Amino acid sequence: MSLLDFQIALGRLVRAPDGRDPFRALHLDEGECSCLEALTQSAGYRFTVAVQRSWCVGRATSAGYLTLSILSAEVRTRLLNEWTNSGGGTSSFIAAEADALLNFIANLLPDPSHELTVCRLEQATLRANEGATDFRAPDPAPLDSPQCVVRRGRHAGIATFHGEPHRIVSALLDHKTLPQVSPEAEVIMLFGPGLERLCRAASSSEVALWERLTETVKLTALLREGHRPDDIKAMLHAGVAEYGD
Q1: What domains are defined for the chain?
Q2: Three-state DSSP string of the chain
Q3: How many CB atoms lie within 10 A of CB 203?
């Protein structure tokens, strides 16, 4: 067994189980696998796993603090366990960790719900804030090229409020009971590094454009589908959209 294979196998064993064979694709014989499996019964191994798991949970809790703080203790514990069991909480890059964690949580929350709104709000705010320091509005010249392609901004996001946003956020920050979900009072907010205060209300045409940009799309295709040039320019200028490769 090579040192590299040993290190990889040991790292996989220490990390929270993800249901996969920890020795997959490694050049280990039967005896070496048995030796490593026996190691998992030792007190030192169990202590290392406990420390690693505690570190992962703590990191995840910090990464998604706002969203996790409004969930019940039972739901919060379940989500954190599922996240760490899937291998989460180990990234050295807090922004990437937070974004992945909030995506994970969002896929498990009821839709519509204030909890999902807060999750997307936190995610979008973190993205926009991360990109704001170095953001510069792009040159509009590429829009004149038939080869121009557009995609969602990497530091952008969207959050759908089911009720008056200020009331929902105030209740959240003051730890008060959240108002009833009101789908008929929907307000959608765009977040981007070039926006004043990093966010603003989105128009229906901007929402449609955002939903269309799940992949890189040619500008000519967007215009042919009826998307407004002004919306495309405004979203590019705000970093909500960006030029693709």
Answers
A1: 131-245 (3.90.930)
A2: CCHHHHHHHHHHHHCCCCCCCCCCCCCCCHHHHHHHHHHCCCHHHHHHHHHHHHHHHHHHHHHCHHHHHCCCHHHHHHHHHHHHHCCCCCCCCHHHHHHHHHHHHHCCCCCCCHHHHHHHHHHHHHHHHHHHCCCCCCCCHHHHCCCCEEEECCCCEEEEEECCHHHHHHHHHCCCCCCCCCHHHEEEEEECCCCHHHEEECCHHHHHHHHHCCCCEEHHHHHHCCCCHHHHHHHHHHCCEEECC
A3: 14
Q: Among residues of the chain, what percentage have pLDDT more than 70?
A: 80
pLDDT of res. 12: 60
Pick the most confident of 37-41, 51-55, 234-238: 234-238
In this predicted structure, the answer to whether residue 92 has a pLDDT above a threshold of 60 is: no
Q: Rounded to an integer, what distance in angstroms lies between the CA atom of residue 199 and that of residue 206? A: 13
pTM over 0.85, yes/no: no
Give φ, ψ of 237 to 5 degrees.
-60, -30
Residue 21 predicted with pLDDT over 90: no
> Rounded to a whole number, what is the largest CA-CA distance in the chain?
67
Residue 71's region, left for phi above 0, alpha for psi from -120 to 50, else beta, is beta
Residue 226 has pLDDT above 80, yes or no: yes
